[in-house]
Design goal:
The chain is an alpha/beta fold. Helix content is 43%, strand content 10%.
Length: 354
């Protein structure tokens, strides 16, 4: 299949870097390295993934989601302990593998993903009675939290079994964690806790895949690449390590966070980028209510958005990955002609996000 991509050798380094950025790959390195990375990634993307085995809990999903059993089902996770956010995006089977001519005269129109679930939970105190919108802010006192591996192993299993596998995902996107923040030499204890939980999610999913209980794909996603796609200021380097902040470092991080929330609110308001359905529609209503400055009723206390930036992060991560995969298909089908199309799409994206 790599011979199909021999035209990459005729590209200049800048062109290869542009293709790598548009497909979510590292854009640094020499020309041979970039060609090798692009060939490996593009060939892999053309292999139709087998749909995962139907998880028993998926029978309890709403009828509309039952009808999506043959769809691409993408779960995007923004890592955390007390503020872990995830969303579920659905796309039809023809999203990456159209049934028509494999190389049509014009690229097919983009397919809009359907957002069916959009939630934030506190992993350290999971409870079936928690609101699906967010964890409650008024809870009965609990014993002091324990962060030992023995405690978090059940948390990882419960989270995946209760919240993720019932969606029968074909792909699970997990935000990659850093060991250090802002290039500092110290490793924060809280960072280690999230890293430990991240590793446990991979371990549980790998075990289920090896035992034939789930057949999807786990995809690590660097926040820096998501930030570059959405043109956020505080994105870090190619390996996802944030650069050491100057005097205005915190302001830059806060500005990036505000920008993410602004982008998502605008998409919800305009109805572009994705279609809201089911539980996610309730979140969308809350997003618009908060954007318009509506006051919350006392009866709704604890049922609000809470840390909306985490919800924004998981959604933007999922949407960025969807676009990267579409760009991979575009490059595979159109060859060098895709360079002009990617440049055109890039201009549209800058206009829409800026």
């Amino acid at each position: 299949m790599a011979t199909h991509l021999n035209w990459l050798r005729t590209c200049k380094l800048k062109q290869l870097e542009a293709i790598a950025r548009a497909t979510g790959l590292n854009s640094s390195g020499t020309k041979p390295i970039l060609i090798s990375h692009l060939q490996d990634s593009l060939c892999k993307s053309q292999s139709q993934p087998s749909l995962p085995l139907l998880h028993p809990s998926s029978k309890n999903l709403p009828q509309k989601q039952q009808q999506r059993k043959n769809d691409y089902k993408i779960i995007s996770i923004d890592m955390g302990i007390r503020n872990l956010a995830y969303c579920h995006l659905a796309l039809p089977p023809t999203w990456l593998h159209p049934e028509e001519d494999p190389k049509p005269k014009t690229p097919p129109p983009p397919i809009t993903p359907t957002l069916t679930n959009w939630s934030r939970i506190n992993v350290s105190s999971p409870s079936p009675s928690d609101s699906p919108l967010t964890t409650t802010t008024t809870q009965t006192p609990h014993p002091k939290e324990s962060f030992t591996p023995a405690t978090y192993a059940p948390h990882a299993h419960t989270f995946l079994t209760t919240h993720i596998l019932p969606h029968n995902p074909t792909h699970i996107l997990i935000e990659r964690q850093r060991f250090r923040s802002m290039g500092g030499s110290a490793v924060q204890e809280w960072t280690l806790r999230v890293n430990m939980f991240e590793a446990m999610l991979y371990a549980v999913l790998h075990t289920w895949a090896a035992e034939g209980k789930w057949g999807g794909e786990v995809v690590p996603v660097l926040p820096s690449k998501v930030g570059r796609y959405w043109r956020l200021g505080d994105v870090g380097d190619e390996d996802g390590m944030k650069k050491k902040a100057g005097k205005r470092g915190n302001e830059g991080a806060e500005g990036s966070k505000a920008r993410k929330m602004e982008i998502v609110r605008e998409m919800v308001r305009s109805g572009s980028g994705f279609v809201l359905e089911g539980q996610a529609g309730e979140i969308g209503a809350l997003v618009m209510g908060k954007a318009e400055g509506k006051k919350k009723k006392k009866a709704d206390k604890g049922q609000g958005l809470g840390k909306f930036d985490d919800l924004a992060d998981c959604l933007l991560q999922g949407l960025a990955w969807v676009k990267w995969e579409e760009n991979k298909r575009l490059v595979w089908e159109r060859g060098k002609e895709a360079l002009d199309l990617l440049r055109e799409n890039n201009g549209k994206g800058k206009k829409n996000s800026g």
